[in-house]
Write a structure and sequence with these properties.
This protein is α/β, with parallel strands linked by helices and 481 residues long. The chain is 63% helix and 6% strand. It has 25 helices and five strands. It has helices at residues 11-19, 21-29, 43-46, 48-60, 65-88, 92-104, 106-111, 118-135, 141-153, 163-176, 182-201, 206-220, 235-246, 248-253, 259-277, 284-301, 308-311, 315-330, 334-337, 339-364, 368-379, 392-396, 414-420, 439-447, 449-453; strands at 386-388, 402-403, 424-428, 456-466, 469-477. A five-stranded mixed beta sheet has the order 2-1-3-5-4.
């Protein structure tokens, strides 16, 4: 789908099945994969907190979209409540502004209901920030904040944007503590050092290190080397991404992500800088919020993909700083208070601009995946079928069918693919050839040409069609020899 800021993404209809692959497999078959030959072991290696917690959640219900999405919605609700609590220490107006702005943000709404890693990641980082706010009066909470960050790191490595916040916050609180109480704030410093060391120690493990390299390469859009183990560094590609993010990317990837909060956040950063210059006291929470915002923006400068979900990590600090700006206005002169009406008007105007495109898209494509799943089950009843192809996972997720990923570095040897016992390919009709060929089709044609030539088309159906494109699904029966 195409978002209001111009970014497009297939994640809302494709990526949930991938991120839930290991938990789903364990619920259905008692293992992280449905076949020992499968080497798509990614999320249970890099994201064990996500994998195990989602597995426990799905065990309460069943491995289906509605249950997996409920997990994300729970994290969204917790994030909104915590944003209110964090800012309530300043004023009710700022707290309501933060909670409301996060709750109605189109990108947060859209991804906040999807079973993807970004929502629990942001949720855990907001929890860590809330604990840091509490640590100002009770130093032991800093250790809990450090533990929470470690959980965020083992949810998604984008949590690296919060590492400077954790370290900076612990150090600031220690340096500002009174001589008698300073020793208690060493708890936070020690806890921060321990969790950072634990995260770094994971890179000693070969599988973790290799998948981490793949993670960075994916974010920076580097081409892999022939062994797929290390990045082939491309300075030209990096500078291309940096140049884009410092020009058009600032508008599309920052201001249009949250038009009101993004401007207010810059105003608040400027006000905090002015307070520093005048020698005024600036509390640790304001400083750490600025560090969080700066860290997120610096990391995103190197982001080479125009995908909304990668930019969501900047949303919490932007909203927090925006709410702090509102608090400053509320406590300022009557002239400043008069600006609140404009801020509220701008907030509703922002919602009016962002919400209609989202509603129109969903009205035009109601329940595409659910309908497609029913069509797939008519062509391939649940049983001994083993599916592969770009569209197999999202369409088979709600059922009990086995599916495997034949893409990227995973399951790329002919012996391994044959051992998986693939019987059906579920692919987009426009990706049977050319540079955008479905990887499963490419590997079948390359390693099993006879099976590809003898394939049987079981049927095809439209997943959706409209002004923004058309996707037609073809289901093939193949016999790998």
């Amino acid at each position: 789908m195409i978002f209001p800021n111009g970014f497009s993404s297939s994640a809302p209809v494709k990526d949930e099945a991938a991120k839930c692959y290991a938990p789903r497999s364990r619920v259905l078959w008692g293992k992280w994969t449905a076949n020992e030959a499968d080497d798509y072991r990614y999320w249970d290696t890099l994201s064990p907190v996500w994998t195990y917690s989602l597995y426990a959640w799905l065990r309460l219900g069943r491995p289906a979209y509605e249950w997996a999405r409920g997990y994300a919605v729970a994290w969204s609700g917790l994030s909104i409540l915590l944003l209110y609590w964090i800012l309530a220490r300043r004023s009710a107006g700022a707290a309501l502004f933060a909670a409301a702005l996060f709750a109605v943000n189109v990108y947060a709404v859209h991804y906040g209901r999807l079973a993807l890693l970004e929502t629990p990641l942001n949720g855990l980082l907001i929890v860590a920030f809330a604990l840091q706010a509490k640590a100002k009066d009770q130093p032991a909470y800093m250790a809990l904040a450090a533990l929470c960050w470690l959980m965020a790191w083992f949810t998604k490595q984008s949590a690296v944007v919060y590492a400077p916040v954790l370290a900076g916050g612990a150090l600031i609180m220690y340096l500002r503590a009174d001589g008698e109480n300073r020793k208690y704030y060493l708890i936070g410093v020690a806890a921060t050092l321990v969790v950072l060391a634990m995260a770094a120690a994971c890179f000693l493990d070969f599988d973790y290190r290799v998948r981490s390299v793949m993670n960075v390469r994916h974010a920076m859009d580097y081409r892999p080397d022939p062994t797929y183990l290390w990045m082939r560094v491309s300075p030209a590609r990096t500078w291309e991404a940096v140049a884009a993010n410092l020009t058009t990317g600032v508008f599309n990837g920052y201001f249009l992500m949250s038009p009101v909060a993004s401007v207010l956040a810059l105003i608040e950063i400027g006000a905090i800088a002015a307070d520093f210059r005048r020698g005024k006291y600036v509390d640790a929470i304001s400083v750490t919020a600025v560090i969080w915002w700066l860290s997120a923006r610096v990391v995103l400068i190197f982001q080479a993909h125009e995908s909304v979900r990668f930019y969501l990590v900047q949303l919490p600090p932007t909203v927090i700083l925006g709410a702090m700006a509102v608090d400053r206005m509320l406590k300022g002169s009557s002239r400043n208070r008069s600006k609140i009406g404009f801020v509220l008007f701008a907030a509703f105007a922002s919602l009016a601009v962002h919400l209609p495109p989202w509603l129109v898209w969903h009205a035009a494509h109601p329940l595409e995946v659910e309908k497609g799943a029913k069509n797939l089950r008519l062509l391939v009843p649940e049983g001994e079928a083993v599916l592969a192809g770009e569209w197999a996972p999202p369409l088979a997720f709600n059922g009990g069918q086995r599916y495997f990923y034949l893409k990227n570095v995973f399951n790329r040897e002919p012996e391994r693919i044959k051992a998986l016992g693939v019987t059906h390919l579920v692919v987009d009709s426009s990706k049977l050839g050319g540079p955008d060929m479905d990887p499963a089709v490419r590997r079948t044609r390359k390693f099993f040409p006879s099976a590809w030539d003898k394939r049987a088309e079981l049927g095809r159906f439209k997943l959706w069609e409209g002004e923004d494109g058309e996707v037609e699904i073809i289901v093939f029966r193949v016999l790998l020899e």
